Amino acid sequence: MKHIRVAACMLMLALAGCDNNDNAPTAVKNDETPAAQSAPTKDPAQLQKLAQQSEGKELTLLDASEVQLDGAATLVLTFSIPLDPEQDFARTVHVVDKKSGKVDGAWELSPNLKELRLRHLEPNRDLVVSVERDLTALNKNRLWPRV
């Protein structure tokens, strides 16, 4: 009987050791990942190289879709060429819910400078996305062809 008690105590200690209530390392890892992904490269030499590669190409919106990014619903706008990271995207790209009005949140530019992301969308919303003609690419082209 004594052996059973000792075995039961050892089993309880082993199971208690498996309980991981410490979420701090996971939270730190999650905080680092989006920051690394959302910070577009701002090295002037690399920006110049990207601008030269897209020289003569028109800026067009290729896709607007909802994806899961880091477990959150995210609206992603994909463009044909890299965007200028120095512009204020909140001034040129707008998202409105048909029922409740303007959607809260900030646009973030992907590291490749071709995707704008709006994270943490609420479910079951009917959204309208509008992009102003002032949206500018690295090669200084605007979204709409000049008339």
TrEMBL record:
InterPro entries from the UniProt entry = A2MG_MG1 (IPR040639)
Q: Where in this protein does the record put region Disordered?
A: 26-51
Identify the Pfam families for this entry. bMG1 (PF17970)
Domain (Alpha-2-macroglobulin MG1) spans 51-143
Q: Which domain of life is it from?
A: Bacteria
Q: Which PROSITE patterns match?
A: PROKAR_LIPOPROTEIN
Put simply, this protein is called: Protease inhibitor
Originating species: Citrobacter koseri
